[in-house]
Amino acid sequence: MFELTQDPKGFVRLKIGGKIDEAEMKSGLEAFLAVVEAADKTDFLYTITDFEFPALQAIAVEFGYLPRLFSSLPKIGKVALVAEQSWLRKAAEIESMVIPGLTIQTFTPDTKADAESWLTATS
Fold this sequence. Notes:
With 123 residues, this protein is of the alpha/beta class. Helix content is 45%, strand content 28%. The protein has a five-stranded mixed sheet, with helices on both faces. Helix 1 runs parallel beside helix 2. The radius of gyration is 14 Å and the shape is globular. The mean pLDDT is 93.
């Protein structure tokens, strides 16, 4: 599952779950990049449920998109990651530390309302 929807509060909801195959990775990345490239800055509520590692072919597709993904980084605003697995939250925290300009705050599913509040708060 790879779903993108615009939230009326001004951010984009990105939901990922289950095992992602090659076709779903391609269509999901195209949809993600279309959203990011269409705006000056986009904030995301990124929810991961029932995570399974993507199929090998899906990972190969993602590698092909890396140049576009990296060039889109300046257009990504705040990212609130909601995930049950602590290792996914830790990986996102590390990613936020090592990628300049990327701001990721992590939350557990029971604090999803806090994630939305963080995204909509004015800095």
